[in-house]
Design goal:
Layout (H helix, E strand, L loop, with lengths): L6 E6 L3 H10 L4 E7 L3 E3 L4 H5 L9 E3 H4 L6 E5 L2 E5 L4 E4 L3 E3 L2 E4 L3 E3 L7 H4 L6 H19 L12 E5 L3 H14 L2 H5 L9 E5 L11 H13 L2 E4 L4 E4 L3 E4 L4 E3 L2 E4 L3 E3 L2 H4 L10 E2 L5 E2 L2 E6 L4 E2 L1 E2 L2 E2 L4 H19 L14 E6 L2 E6 L2 E4 L1 H14 L3 H17 L28 H6 L1
Parallel strand pairs: 1-2, 1-9, 2-5, 9-21, 11-12, 11-17, 12-13, 19-22
Antiparallel strand pairs: 3-4, 6-7, 7-8, 10-18, 14-15, 15-16, 20-21, 23-24, 25-26, 26-27
Helix pairs in contact: 1-10
Length: about 450
């Protein structure tokens, strides 16, 4: 690196990891460039509420340029990183190549189908704003179609909603969907017999939210059952079709809605760049968060496999934030000629919400469930949202829903979904024979 100029640091990804890395780097002597295919940051912890018509997409998104507007050393480029030339130290995008002295990979994760047939083609995912909006539209369209059916055979599977994966996202969406269906949707569609509506949560292991303490796991299971969610443990999906889910053992559940939250894998940029990755797409990093043989490249968040005492850290927001801060601090040390330090992780606890007045929080050896945990969950998530407007809009929507049992965003808007079979249009997603032939 030319000592006569500032070091150039490129951060790929404007999620939790990328944001905190840039904030930390802004206090060092370097020029920073952020690359992302979207010009907004998404607060993914509340994405499921967009898919359940509780929040608008704009409520959990914030412009990246506004976030960094008061940091003169930070620039942003709206670009899709396609490949990293690690020898030439260049990030290649569709239209331009960006050189770097130091690189932070904070690209996050993508859904993992585990090679199960039909998942990529027919299931809905919850990893982007577009997918959240598309799923919300589809849920509402399902009730629109069911309300127009004269014969009962015509609605087979339309009002059966299958959620695959009993982790945090699956549990939270199952609870939110149950409250939507048995609350505002009931009053909207008076002609529908809601005894025919089924919400099924499938989990391949013997418990929900396996990373949480036993008391919270049991509480979550019981609470979902009381909310009308059919919870099936030790149940695995072997195939997804346009009209059904086929389970191990041969059972078939007829459904037009499969929400896949069963797992994620590292975003494939590292793999396409020749950086060694594991079967889950993640990059094994050194204790300093660098990749072997390339001390100028750091990997943080979901993309990094960080092993501490023989245990790989989970793919959650607090790991992304802490690893990003540590990586940025190490780059600052390298710039001034110091050695990078080993990453130290501090577990600040975990939490999950199931629905109204229901949540579970684990902090150290203490666990909380019920109203207090739910209130704590609300405050922490509201505090961590970026932007005053977003906090106010989320607070208003939450208060409106809590006090009036009403969700004001039950609209069917166009969605830029990447998968055409999952159209957001009620007219185009009828689920009929003609539509399936197009697929």
């Amino acid at each position: 690196m030319d000592k006569s100029r500032k070091a150039r640091v490129v951060v790929i990804g404007a999620g939790f990891g990328g944001l905190w890395a840039v904030r930390t780097l802004a206090g060092t002597t370097c020029d920073i460039l952020v690359l992302d295919r979207n010009n907004y940051h998404t607060f993914l912890a509340l994405l499921y509420q967009v898919a359940a018509a509780e929040l608008e997409a704009e409520d959990i998104a914030y412009p990246v340029r506004s976030i960094f507007g008061k940091l003169p050393a930070v620039d942003f480029a709206l670009a899709q990183a396609r490949r990293i030339d690690i020898e030439k130290r260049v990030v290649e995008t569709d239209n331009q190549a960006f050189p770097y002295d130091y690189l932070i990979l904070a690209t996050g994760s993508v859904p993992h189908s585990f090679g199960i047939r039909g998942v990529e083609e027919h299931a809905f995912f919850l990893k982007t704003l577009e997918e959240g909006v598309t799923l919300k539209n589809h849920i509402i369209c399902s009730f629109e179609r069911a309300s127009q059916q004269i014969d009962t055979e015509g609605i087979t599977g339309i009002l059966t909603f299958v959620i695959v994966g009993g982790g945090a996202t699956g549990v939270e969406y199952a609870g939110a969907l149950s409250e939507l269906v048995h609350g505002p949707i009931v009053s909207d569609y008076r002609k529908i017999n809601f005894l025919s509506v089924r919400i099924i949560l499938l989990e391949g292991t013997d418990s929900l939210i396996g990373h949480m303490p036993e008391s919270i796991r049991s509480y979550t299971f019981d609470r979902l059952r009381k909310m009308g969610v059919e919870v099936r443990l030790q149940t695995k999906v072997v195939e997804v079709t346009p009209d059904s889910v086929i389970l191990n053992g041969g059972e078939t559940i007829f459904t037009r809605t499969v929400v896949w939250t069963a797992g994620v894998r590292g975003e494939p940029l590292a793999f396409h760049s020749g950086i060694p990755t594991g079967r889950d797409g993640r990059v094994s990093v050194l204790p300093t968060l660098q990749i072997p043989a390339y001390p100028e490249i750091y990997v943080v968040g979901d993309l990094a496999r960080i092993d501490i005492n023989g245990y790989s850290l989970p793919m959650v927001a607090q790991v992304a934030i802490q690893s990003a801060v540590a990586a940025a601090q190490n780059i600052g040390r390298q710039i001034v000629g110091l050695e990078p330090l080993t990453f130290r992780y501090h577990d600040r606890g975990s939490m999950i919400t199931i629905g109204r007045n229901s949540a579970g929080v684990a902090i150290g050896s203490r666990t909380y469930t019920g109203f207090f945990a739910w209130l704590l969950w609300l405050v922490i998530h509201l505090f961590n949202l970026i932007g005053f407007r977003n906090r106010m809009m989320v607070l208003i929507n939450w208060a409106w829903d809590y006090l009036l049992y009403e969700r004001a965003v039950r609209f069917v808007f166009p969605s830029e979904a990447s998968t055409s079979p999952k159209s957001s249009s009620c007219a185009d997603n009828s689920g009929g024979d003609a539509d399936r032939k197009k697929k």
